Amino acid sequence: MFTDFFRGWTKTTLLKEATEEVDKMLDTTKDMYVFSMRVLMDNEKEVSDIYQLDQQLNEMQINVRKKVVEHLTINPRQDITSSLILVTIIIDIERIGDYAKNLIELAHHYPELLRGPYIDRIRKVEETITTNFTDTITAFKNADIELAQTVMEAHAHLAPEIEKIIEDILNDTTLKGREAVIYSLLARFLKRVSAHLKNVASSVVNPFHRLGYRPE
Predict the structure, then answer these.
(1) What is the C-alpha to C-alpha distance for residues 193 and 127, in angstroms, rounded to an integer?
(2) CA distances to 117, 150, 151, 173, 197 from 140, in Å
């Protein structure tokens, strides 16, 4: 798990810098997620350029990979597992940024204010994911195993709940086709955001070969 490396990270400057870059990526993706949801759910103005934020995120991902490779070139036998964990979880973090873009694009396709019982259910899902986002960031920065486990357990309960929302939407013959598509895509995107957060949280709990899976 990442925790053992975290305790001694000040000994390896390049990996320390890479981990700090991952921290920035997590903060950036949370900002992107919150911003995109407010635009979509509450019709707030797009005060930021989501595509520019995504480009910054991509640059941070490249920097992490570069620093990890440089570290392994200089210290080929040191912190190999931690290096693998870093370059693995940045994929999950970058994907969250992609889903934030997808959410903004949904708002472009459906500028009307989202209302109704399905949206009420989705707002509760959004609240849980926002909490999981904060907890994931805190767990990763502090190597907090218990908090990371909480995030993983929250996703395990949230995933089937979201699937039920999608099933209900698709079986609802009273919904217009356009609404059904928007609602179901919104729910699906939120499920993927939650899953990627779970994967990041798992890096604090699990050994490398079980990243993204429940602890044994």
Answers:
(1) 13
(2) 35, 12, 11, 43, 11
Residue by residue, what is the 3-state secondary structure of the chain? CHHHHHHCHHHCHHHHHHHHHHHHHHHHHHHHHHHHHHHHHHCCCCCCCHHHHHHHHHHHHHHHHHHHHHHHHHCCCCCHHHHHHHHHHHHHHHHHHHHHHHHHHHHHHCCCCCCCHHHHHHHHHHHHHHHHHHHHHHHHHHCCHHHHHHHHHHHHHHHHHHHHHHHHHHHCCCCCHHHHHHHHHHHHHHHHHHHHHHHHHHHHHCCHHHCCCCCC
pTM above 0.85, yes or no: yes
pLDDT at 2 over 60: no
How far is residue 169 from each of residues 86, 112, 175, 215, measured CA to CA in Å? 37, 18, 8, 33
Pick the more confident residue, 211 or 28. 28
Task: Summarize pLDDT for 77-93 with one digit per residue, the tens.
Answer: 778 888 899 999 999 99
- Give residue limits of the domains in the chain: 2-210
Q: Any residues with CB less than 8 A from the CB of 215 and at least 6 apart, and which?
A: 149, 152, 205, 206
Q: State the CATH class of domain 2-210.
A: mainly alpha
**What is residue 6's predicted lDDT score, i.e. its pLDDT?**
55
pLDDT, tens digit, for every residue of 135-147?
999 999 999 999 9
